[in-house]
Amino acid sequence: MTADVLFGLAGAVLVGLGLYGLVADPLPLRKLLAFNMLGGGVFLVFGVVARRGAAAGLGGDPVPQALVITGLVVAFAATALAVALLRLLFERTGQTLLDPHAEESSHPDQTNE
Amino acid sequence: MTPPLLADMPTAGGYLLVLAIMVPIAGVLFQFVLGGRWAGRIALLVMPAGLAIAVAITVRLTESGRPLVYHLAGLAPPLGLALRADGFSALMLLTSALIIAAIGLFARPDFATPAASGEARAPFVFWTLLLALWSALAVVFLGEDLFTLYVGLELLTFGAVPLVSLDGRAETITAALRYLLFALFGSALFLAGTVLLYGEYGTLDISLLAARTHPDVTSAIAVAMMTAGLLAKAALFPFHLWLPPAHAGAPAPASALLSALVVKGPFFLVVRLWFDAMPVLTNLPAAQILGALGSGAVLFGSVLALRQSRLKPLIAYSTVAQIGYLFLMFPLAGGEALPASVRMAVWTGGAAQAASHAFAKAAMFAGAGLIGQTLGHDRISDLRGIGTALPLTTFALALSGLSLMGLPPSGGFLAKWLLLRASIATAQWWWAGLMLTGGLLAGGYIFRIVAPALSAPEVPLAAVRTPARRQEMLVLALAMLSLLLGVVPLGLSTLLAVGSPVATQILPR
Fold this sequence. Notes:
The complex is a heterodimer. Chain A has 3 helices and no strands. Chain A is an all-alpha fold.
């Protein structure tokens, strides 16, 4: 088993765990952590792709490396936005749960204002 | 299919594409520097400029009959990044510019900075995000590189999520958070698919991918992941759960932008991916799956819209249903075995649906906002008499309803007629049945709004606040635009044929 395959498999495991957590975990904060794990897995696969594309005496293909940096910034910004919303939600309600059935109009008489 | 190399060459006027992205984002920078009440003023200044750029791009495409291409820093792909506008991009840019301008003018009284304070949070956030969304939409419509499109998609999400929770109530924060989590799921999948494609083909440029792709397992997995991610962001059934609370809870101008434009961005990328980048994959039965999900959306969204007791959730569920029609493009136009004329008709129909729904839905949410302000609530059962109090708004709601139902003369009619004819021409009659059912259901939920609105109230209507006449006129203008699309079919099909991936057989690119 070469290093590429090992890291590729590790990336796949992280992606799988992250996807599972994002879909199955009811807590928003843990969903967010799962998203970061998923992102970590994807970035690892980026690294593997860069390594496999190594040519012209370089240790790796620079394009995926450049993309990873952008991807990290985007994932960081997304996490920051989600944490800010979570904190706001906690300040307003004292809890951070998403009611999974809130979108069904369970309060038919509730006004918009 | 080998795309001609000519399509990749930069064309004269390519700078317009850069301006379409840079002018709104430059506006955002000035908004942050000058701050306070300048935020609204700068947004109003950028609107005519952005509209002029969108018109200029559309005129150039129609006149030359060729797509506009620009290479950033003069470097050609795969080394550099390209921007490209075909007819569909130009139509979506123009639609966005018109809707953003109309909603911007509409929102002035709602998001005026109070005279006492130098800067208020909600107006400042609204005006900066309005321009940020515009720029993000331009990136999504013009990007030719999958990673550029990923960044555009993320910018769109970051612009859209705070708009949902603009009023800061706990339930809208929850809706925003749920939206963000769905969107993050979508973007992670999109990025994962992107890296697989890069590993396989060594490029992310759409026209280069179109020349290189071959149907194999890696490409199929990559496209499946990217499509699933985009569907989550486009709120296609069964990923629609986040949409109704988010779109119904946001302030009216924000709902209009979210429902009219933001959900079109991910849809547009599915079209880019399936038709432009991976045409070899559209033959697969997967196109039927997208069509089936679209049908599910039409039926499920319409039935739930019929069951809502308040106006804004009804309109939000109607968005869920109307998004479904867009995805009927894939089974009807996918597959190079189908005749080019049918595929081109479906391409035109899909684009007309995207644009006419955008105008109609912007008008409906803005109109619902006015009704909510006037009555102090938006319960459908208590709408009686609003037709006399707000005649223009009620008329605009009914006109937009025509487009949603697909009745002539409206953009929605043109779209649904083209799709309906194609479903018969390609012997896929079940989509025709679905579209007719969807039209009937849409008729039902529009009737539920219009019928009480036009009936006389039992007690005289007590208006909490009468909206400005100008706001009503803007709602009507948006509804008229959705109608007007239906009377310019020739101009629309000429524009949409420019650089279209399904028109390669009849028009040289």
